[in-house]
Amino acid sequence: MAETTADPEPDAAPTVLQTLRRLDSGPRGLTEAAAEERQTRFGANVPPGHRGISWARVLLRGLRDPFTAVLLSLGLVSALVASWGTACVILLLVAVSCVLRTSGEYRADRSMAALRELVATTATVLRRADEAAPPDAREIPVAELVPGDVIRLGPGDLIPADVRLLRTRGLAVHQAVLTGESAPVAKNAADEAVDRTSFDRPQLCFQGTSVTSGSATAVVVATGARTRFAAAHAPPSVRREASAFDRTVHGISWILIRFMLLTPPLVLMANAALRDRGLETLPFAVAVAVGLTPEMLPVIVTTCLARGASLLARTHGVIVRRLPALHDLGAVDVLCLDKTGTLTQDRPALDRALGPDGRDDPEVLRWAAVNAWWTLQLADLPLPDALDEAVLDAVDENDLLAHDGLAALPFDPVRRLATAVVRTPGRLGTHTLVTKGAAEAVLERCALTRPEHERLLARAAELADDGLRVLAVAVAEARARTRAYTPADELGLSFRGFLTFKDALAPTATDALRALADRGVTVKILTGDHPGTAARVCRDLGVAVPADHVLTADRVDRLDDTDLAEVVARTTVFARCAPEHKARVCAALRAGGHTVGYLGDGVNDLPALRTADVGIAPREAVAVARESADVVLAEKDLTAIGHSIAAGRYAGGNITTYLRVTLSSNLGNVIAMLAAGLLLPFLPMLPAQVLAQNLCFDAAQLAFAHDRPHPSVLRRPTVLRPRELLRFITGFGVLNAVADLATFGVLFLALNGPDGLDDAAVFHSGWFTENLITQALVMLLLRSGRHTAEGNRPGPIDWAAAALTTAGLLLPVSPLGSLLGLTPLPVLYYLLLAAVLVLYGAGLTVVRARDERRLNGHTSMR
Q1: Catalytic residue among 109, 328, 338, 798
Q2: How far apart are CA 43 and CA 50, in angstroms?
Q3: Global confidence as pTM
Q4: How far apart are alpha carbons 364 and 417 in whole angstroms?
Q5: How confident is the model at residue 802 (pLDDT cuts 50, 70, 90)?
Q6: Domains in the chain, please, with CATH?
Q7: pLDDT digits over 230-279, tens only?
Q8: Is 601 a catalytic residue?
Q9: Cα diameter, the chain
C-alpha cells in the first residue's frame, strides 16, 4: 500500500472507490492482521510526542541569561585577583537565581503534562477477525488507528484522524481549531469534482475537529505525523524573534557590559598616572565594577516573576510556562484574539423574527420552533443543531404542543433546509408543511413573483452583511395523505419571514474589554469569519468599529510589510484570516513598536502564537496550541487575561523600580569613587568595605520583590526601554554623585580641615555611612509604590530602608566595623550629614516629579 498523505492536491478529489482502492480497504473495515501490519508500518496514531524538558536542561537554559553571564564573568575576574569574598557572593547569587527560575518553569512544565492526559483517547472502529468474518464495531484507543480503518462518527465525537467520508446523515463539523470559522461546516460523502483547498472539501474531515450534528462512516486516510493536525508540530522554519523581556534584558546587559569593561581600565590608568599606583589597585577596580552591577537582578527578577506566576496559578488557574512571559504580559499594549469563545459563547442567540414586510412577527418564530421541535423528534436526531436550540430556547413549550407531528424531512447539506409535517387539532383533512433553512434555498421554493423574490433575497443579503445569520421560514397547506412526504413536496410554499441570529456574547466580555482599555491595552480581532459578523460582535460589545477599521485577508495580501505596519495600527477587525495572515498582523504590530499578546486555541493559531511576544491558550485548546503557548488559561476568558496582565505589571513594576534605584545609586557611587580616587592619597574605600556595602544593599533590595506598586502601575504597559533607563540613571546617578561629593565637604569640615582627610579610616567610615543612608533614601523616594494602598502602614521597602539606615549608623561603632577597618565618627559629622541628606531628598523629589511629567506626557501621546 502506498504511503498516504494528509493533504492531496487541490484539484485531486478522489471518489470513494478510488480512496478505498488506494488504501487497500473496504466498507467492512480491515482485518486484525492487516491492522497490526499497518500499525507496525505507520506507527501509533499520535502527534509527534512532546519531549518533557528535564530539570537540568531548564537550569542550563537559565545560565544563558545575559545578566547571569555578566555576573559569572565578574565572579571569575574576582577569583583571578584573589577577591574570594566577592567571587563567593556572586556565585551564590547566581545559584539562587537559577534554582528559583528552574523550579518555577519545571513546575509549569509538569502542570502542562497533567493537562495532556485530559484528551479523548478512543474511537469506534469496524474490524474483522479474518476476511470471511463480519465487521465488529468496537471502541479502541485512538493510538491504534491505522490508514484504511473504517470508523463511525456521531454528535460530540472528536475526529481522531484525517478521514474521507463514506456515508453521512446530516453531518456538520466544527473545524474552528483549523480554520477559525465559528459556524459548523456541512460535510457529505458525495463524489463531487471540486477545486478547493483541503479544509473546504465536503468529503474530508480532519483530526482535531469535532462533530456538531449528524453521523457518518468514514475511512482513515492519514494518521500520526501525516495528519494536517500533526503538521503544526513541526518546528517553525524561522526562529522566534526575541520577546519584549529578552529585548529589555539584552539592551540593559550591553549597557552594563560597556560600563564594566570601561571602569577597571579607567581606575587603573587614573591611579597610575596621578597617584603612581600600580596593580595593587586592581582589586579595588574590580570592586568598583562589581559595585556598578545590580548583582541581585537575577534573583529579584526571578522572585518577582515566580511569585506572580504562583499567585496566578493558585487564584485563577493560570499556568505561566515561561517565567519571562509574565513580564511580557505586563508590557502588552495590543491583544489579538479570535472572537469565537472569547467575546462570544460559541453559540448563536436569536436576534429577531421578521415578517415579509420587515416588521417583527412572532408567528415566524412560532412556526420555526414547530419545525425545529418535530424535526428533532421525528427524524430521530440525537441533539438539535445550534440554530434550532436557539429557536427552542426562545419559545414557550406550550406553543410546540399545539400541533401533532406527522413526518419530517431532516436537514441535509444539498437541500440546505428541513421540513416538518404537522397536523393542527380541529383542522381535519389538512396537513401543514413547515420549512426552515437557508434563505436562498427556501425562497426558490416559494410561490413568489420575480420582484418579490429579488427583494427578499436582497433583504437577506443585507441582514447577512450586517453580521447576522439568516434563516427563512415558509409553510404550505396539503391535503392529508398516508404516503410518505419527499423533498418534491417542498414546492409552492408560502413565505412567512426571516429569523436572524447573532453570536451570544460572553457574559464577562464587556467588562473585560473595558478593563483592558483602562489599562492601555488595545484589542484587535483576527478571525476567519465574515467581516460583518466580527464587526457586529464588536458593536454589540460597545466597541466602535468604523468602516475603515475593518481589513479582510485579500487586502492584507496586497500590502507589503511596511504598508501593513502602518495599516494595522488603526485597524480593529481582520476578517477571513488564514493562519499566515494572523502571523503577519502580529509581526507588523511588533514592527511598529508594540508588545503583542495573542490568544488562540486552534492549529490555525499556531503561527501567530509563535510570532507574538506572548502566546496565550486556554486549557481546552488543542494540545499543540497549548504546547506552543507561553501562558495557559483555565478558561478562554478575557477576565483571566486581565488578571494575568495585572500580575505581569506588578512584577514588571517592581523589576523596573529595582533597576532604576539600584543602577542610579551604583552609577553615582562609581563616579564618586573615581573622583575620590584621584583626589585622595589613599583608596576611597577598601575592597572589603565595598563588598560589605554591596551585601547590605543586596539584602535590602530583596524587599523590591515583595513590594506592592502603586495602582497607577496598572494603567500603562511596564515597558523598560534601555535608552530611557540610561537617561534616568544618568540623571539620578549624577545627583547621587553630587551628594557624595558634598559628603567629602562635610568630612572636610567635620575633621577640622584638609589635614583630617589624611585619616583613611575616618574617611572610609563617613562615606560608608553616607552611602547606606542615601541608598535607603533613594529606595523610599524612587519606588513606584511609595503611596501604596496600605495607607500609613510600613511596607517591605520601608522596613528595608530602616534596616539599611540602622546598619549605616551602627556598623562603624560595632566590633564588626573594626574588622572592616571602620571607626566611630564625631557628632558634628552626623549633624552636617543630616543637612546634606535633606537637600539630597529635596533634589530627588524635584527630579522625580519632572521625570514623571515627561513620562506621562509621552504615554498620552502614544
Answers
A1: 338
A2: 16
A3: 0.71
A4: 16
A5: very high
A6: 248-315+647-861 (1.20.1110.10), 329-343+507-633 (3.40.50.1000), 350-503 (3.40.1110.10)
A7: 765 555 544 456 666 777 767 777 777 776 667 667 666 666 665 566 55
A8: no
A9: 125
